[in-house]
Task: inverse folding
């Protein structure tokens, strides 16, 4: 579920803008560090710290989009890749300078600790909360994209950007809003999952492959594609590490290649 929350924004923004943003993990890392700082230094409660992480990352992404990303929309894939890798390296250096080599500490509230009894078994309360919260978020995203005017414009721009512009859709503002939402969701995922996926200076590179696999297998511009891909990858990766640890993530990569050979646009891709 955390993989999905982080990756779905990348799927939509890549599908809409056609921008190869390998630096998407930077926003997730920023969300985790903001959460930790808000709780440790400013004493904010966990829910408010999560909200602050989402808002700050979204606002910061707008600045980056206007100053940097928008200048490379018409550039080639190589320029976009080099730019995003450069942004990753800069953000990693800054994170290491400010926070050091240790992972950001996360102080969960008492009501998210311990176990919850469900159907005769005990499950960690925090993980149950993440699943339930992410499920509500997925439902809200689906409603926003499928049942609102903004969602209709996003779907129109994904299907045919030129036609969307010709009927009066301001794609510049749409790009900015969508990019801010996608980046904010990455920050939200990084903050919520900081106790499971530790946030440290190497975070953007450490998890980049998984984010890209979710997007590639799920398909660009799709909501349900990354959801299915994230579930498959998350469950399969954990199962492989428990049952056949000697193979590590090898089987995940093999499965990814097999799926992409079968469906090059991903399971639910709407754009090549």
Result:
């Amino acid at each position: 579920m955390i993989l999905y929350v982080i990756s779905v924004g990348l799927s939509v923004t890549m599908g809409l803008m056609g921008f190869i943003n390998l630096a998407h993990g930077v926003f997730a890392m920023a969300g985790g560090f903001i959460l930790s700082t808000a709780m440790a230094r400013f004493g904010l409660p966990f829910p408010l710290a999560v909200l602050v992480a989402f808002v700050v990352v979204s606002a910061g992404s707008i600045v980056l989009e206007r100053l940097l990303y928008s200048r490379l929309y018409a550039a080639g894939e190589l320029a976009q890749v080099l730019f995003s890798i450069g942004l990753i390296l800069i953000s990693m250096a800054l994170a290491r300078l400010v926070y050091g080599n240790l992972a950001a500490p996360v102080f969960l509230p008492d009501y998210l600790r311990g176990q919850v009894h469900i159907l005769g078994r005990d499950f960690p309360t925090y993980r149950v909360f993440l699943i339930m919260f992410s499920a509500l978020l997925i439902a809200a995203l689906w409603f926003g994209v499928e049942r609102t005017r903004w969602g209709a414009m996003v779907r129109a721009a994904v299907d045919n950007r030129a036609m969307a512009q010709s009927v009066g859709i301001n794609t510049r503002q749409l790009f900015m809003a969508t990019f801010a939402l996608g980046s904010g969701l990455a920050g939200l995922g990084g903050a919520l999952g900081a106790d499971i996926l530790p946030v440290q200076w190497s975070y953007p590179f450490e998890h980049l492959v998984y984010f890209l696999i979710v997007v590639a297998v799920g398909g660009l511009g799709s909501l349900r594609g990354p959801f299915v891909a994230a579930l498959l990858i998350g469950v399969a990766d954990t199962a492989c590490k428990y049952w056949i640890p000697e193979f590590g993530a090898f089987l995940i990569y093999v499965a990814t290649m097999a799926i992409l050979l079968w469906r090059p646009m991903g399971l639910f891709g709407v754009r090549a």
